[in-house]
Amino acid sequence: MNILEKLKNALKKTKEKFKEIISTDNLEKLEEGLLSADVGSQLTKILIEKCKKTPGNKKEILKKELIKILSIPYQENLFSLPKVILIIGVNGSGKTTTVGKLAHYYKINNKKVIIASADTYRNGATEQLKIWAEKINTEIILSQKGQDAAAVVFDAIISAQKRNLDILLIDTAGRLHTRKELIEELKKIVRVIVKVKKSQPEEIFLTIDASVGQNGIEQAKIFQKEIGVTGIIVTKLDGTAKGGILIPIAYELKLPIRYIGCGENIEDLIPFSAEDFVNTIFDFEN
């Protein structure tokens, strides 16, 4: 199955929601539809005003605006190997699974990858990540429950540097954005990365579960303020009709959506394309 087919499968429920929206030229119904698709009141108001003021087909106007909102450019920075990718997010947002899928994605793109298990809170977190590592035949730095997560990250960077590896993926514990002490632990991890690499981590990806809707945006704002985030990975897109949440995520956070999770299999993580996403939810023939 190619990327577009995976995207179509993942967005089946969301497409049904948008089918109801775009099948009408009635702006009042369009507004109701956008709100029900989890686009949010502020952005819905802006989009409706745009449709009112711009002459032409409302569907095409909306489509163009959505592509513009979702097309946030990014520039990958690489200071020295390994490229360090820190995965953060709240409990249950799919971090560990995402780490496994990312490792697979980078490996099939000919990168030498190592994984660090820095979730030292959750029972079974290291075991789950070890299964992923074995499945894709990649190296892993294991940890013990209660161990200092920053120490695990330190060991992982040193190991990756010695072996001249391309990418270090760091799985972290799920943490509520309101738990100050857990946010401080993340800051400590970042400080250790800076100390060893003499640079910030190249990527800090925040995982957001598509099904949580607007709550995910509020969570993300705290992580962005406290830690800094370079990109968003939206997970579990295949299990919800709330795929519209990607639109206010991009609009409010001004952060690029880098990948989307579109299934449970190891290859079910795909790079995000604004045009592909919008074209898919507007395509009612397939």
Can you give keywords for this protein?
286 residues, alpha/beta, single chain, 12 helices, elongated, 8-stranded mixed sheet, 8 strands
Give a topology summary:
Layout: H1 3-10, H2 12-22, H3 27-36, H4 41-53, H5 58-70, E1 83-88, H6 95-108, E2 113-118, H7 125-136, E3 139-141, H8 149-162, E4 167-172, H9 180-197, E5 203-209, H10 214-226, E6 231-235, H11 246-253, E7 257-261, E8 269-271, H12 274-282
Parallel strand pairs: 1-4, 1-5, 2-3, 2-4, 5-6, 6-7
Antiparallel strand pairs: 7-8
Helix pairs in contact: 2-3, 3-4, 5-12, 6-7, 8-9, 10-11
Largest sheet: 8 strands, mixed
By DSSP, the count of extended strands is: 8
Q: What percentage of residues falls in helices of 4 or more residues?
A: 40-55%
Mean pLDDT rating: 88
Poorly predicted regions: none
Distance between the termini: 15 Å
Class from helix and strand fractions: alpha/beta
Morphology call: elongated
SSE sequence, one letter per element: HHHHHEHEHEHEHEHEHEEH
Strand content: 5-15%
Radius of gyration computed on alpha carbons: 20 Å
Spatial order of the strands forming the largest sheet:
3-2-4-1-5-6-7-8
Q: How many helices does DSSP assign?
A: 12
